[in-house]
Structures are given as structure tokens and as C-alpha cells.
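Incident review: delayed structure delivery

Summary: a single-chain prediction request sat in the queue longer than the usual turnaround. Root cause was a stuck worker, restarted by the on-call engineer. No data loss occurred. The affected request and its eventual output are reproduced below so the record is complete for anyone auditing the incident later.

Affected input:
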Amino acid sequence: MCKSKRCLDKTSKIVRHGTIGTFEKQVNIKFTNKGIKMKPKARVKTNPKARRLMGDSKYLNLLDEVKCNEICLDRVPHEYLTEELCLAALSHSGFQFTFIPEEKMTQAICMAAMLDCGWLLNKVPEEFKTRELCLAALESDSEAIAHVPQEFLTEELCLRAVDDWCGAMAFVPDEFINDELYFRAIGKRDQDFSAISEQFYNRSF
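Output delivered after worker restart:
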């Protein structure tokens, strides 16, 4: 079996470009001018129950396999889904978030998932949706705008989303609709915006 110490290179990969405030302390990541890197030897703070599992050989074996990307979270027993184990899985793929029950989610787990799979923002409990988390989701996937709370949307974020995906116009608040946004959207000639074109043309400018 591949041991975690031999897998550090796999879990030390760049996850996503950007700056996410105090999240660096929460999930032990390092921001550089080249992006975000997981700190190889960083330790996630564990709760008392998780600390008890550290003496459980089955849990340690599962953690080792997850760190080495040898097992998906859907094969991990519910009682072993600790924050540490989930973050190890998410360092390989944000899609692993789909296998994490809501009661096991934490702010750090949700952020790690959004850095890679922003389109899963609709799976994030409302209590964990912060401005920083929504920004991370939008940077990862502009379609996440469909699930960003209105109070977190700004004109700048809407412009960035529309630049990447013209369909984002359907979720832009009226207060941010203007000529620039409209022409950026219809300028995406390689995209299909027919489904929302009627909505565009019915806007008053």
C-alpha cells in the first residue's frame, strides 16, 4: 500500500489561483504569485472524536489510501469522514465533495471544494456561503453565479462571469445590467445564448 509520506508530491499540487482571505489558516494552504499550494506537512486541527480515530488502524489505512488517491469518499464509512480525510480527498478532486454528507461539511471543506469545482456551489449549505467562498466558486466556474446569494454579487463579479459565460446574464441583478455587460455577452459568438436572448432584448437600456 502506498504510504502517505510517499504521496506528498501528489497532495502538494497547485489547486487554484487567487486570494481567499483567512482561508490559508483554515485548510493549511500557501498563497504564492503562481497560485495556491497545499502545505505538504501541514496538519488540520482535529476535534476530539477525530483525535480518537488516530489510534484506529482502519482509519489510518483509509486516510493513507485517500492521500494517495487510491479510494473515493463514497467507499469510506460515514464514521471515518473527518475533516482531515475529506480535505485530503478534495486535494485530488473537488468532485469528491458530492460524497460528503451535509452534517460532515465544514467551512474549510466547502472552500476546498469550490476552489476546484465551483459548479457545486448549490451543494454548499447556506450557513457556509460567504463572500469569499462564492468568489472562489465563481473563479473556478462562472456557472456558479446561478447559486450565489444576491447580496454577494457585485458589478465586477458579474462582468467577470459574463466574460467567461454569456449565460451568466440570466442571473445578473437588474441594477448591474448595462450596455457594457450586454455587449460583452452577445460578443461571445462561440457560445449559444439563444435561450436568454429574448430576456436580453426585453431589457431597457
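Verification: The chain has a mean pLDDT of 77.
Action items: add queue-age alerting; document worker restart procedure.
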